Amino acid sequence: MEIQKPTRAKRTRDPDSKRTAIYEAAVQLFTDQGYENVSIAKIAKEAGIAVGTVYRFHETKLTLLRAMLEGVEDAFVTRMASDWACEGTYAERIEGMCHGIFEVAEDNLNLLKLLNMTTDVMFTDGSLPGDRIQNQIRIMYTEAMNVGASHQGDARMMAAIAHGMVEGAIVRWMRLGAPKDIDAASQLALVFKDGFMTKEASQLT
Question: Mean pLDDT, the chain, as a whole number?
């Protein structure tokens, strides 16, 4: 009687876990070695998956980089929109939004370092890193301006200035080592309220 050897069940990883492994490996390698010095083969090895699997998700290293940067930008936009939609005065919304921005930043420190290194990467829709965040700021500023909670002005210009302030605050915070004992969010909110919001912002909802 022939004895059949037991067969081992193949270990499989779902697409989401593979995608996460690729992103984590790419972020680590890009930040450690520089984007130009990293190949898809290196990313696959670091992620513990086949090279062909990486190519199934992303045709090139550039499309992988775009997807990673778009993901972190979308995280900022989603959080900003969510915090802005909360109940409260416009001054309270600003405070909450600034804290939300730094919470997202803390969750994506390595990606933000990468974003800071590759600001000339263009997304598939033709936008540049920061454009979506700036557009979200423009939407919020326009709403606040229409009800008298923010000063009158060109919404696009004001959004560009505000975005520069957000970016500068995050970069400075990162250069300090992302310290938890510095309340960068409250400081940013204070600057926004003093520079952009009217006195009525603390009463208007």
Answer: 85
State pLDDT tens for residues 134-176.
Answer: 999 999 999 999 999 999 999 999 999 999 999 899 888 888 8
Strand (E) or helix (H) holding 132: helix 131-146
Residues in contact with 29: Cβ distance below 8 Å, sequence separation at least 6, in sequence order: 38, 42, 43, 46
Task: Encode pLDDT of 102-143 as tens digits.
Answer: 999 988 887 787 766 555 666 767 777 788 899 999 999 999
What tokens does 124 get? 């598939």
Map tokens 């001054």 to a residue.
Answer: 91
The rounded Cα 194 to chain-centroid distance in angstroms is: 26
Amino acid at 100: G
The 3-class SS string of 21-43 reads HHHHHHHHHHHHHCHHHCCHHHH
Is the pTM for the entire model greater than 0.85?
A: no
- 30/67 Cα distance (integer angstroms): 14
The 10 Å Cβ neighbour count of residue 8 is: 6
Query: d(Cα 86, Cα 25) in Å, to the nearest integer?
Result: 36
- 141 vs 162: CA distance, rounded Å: 10
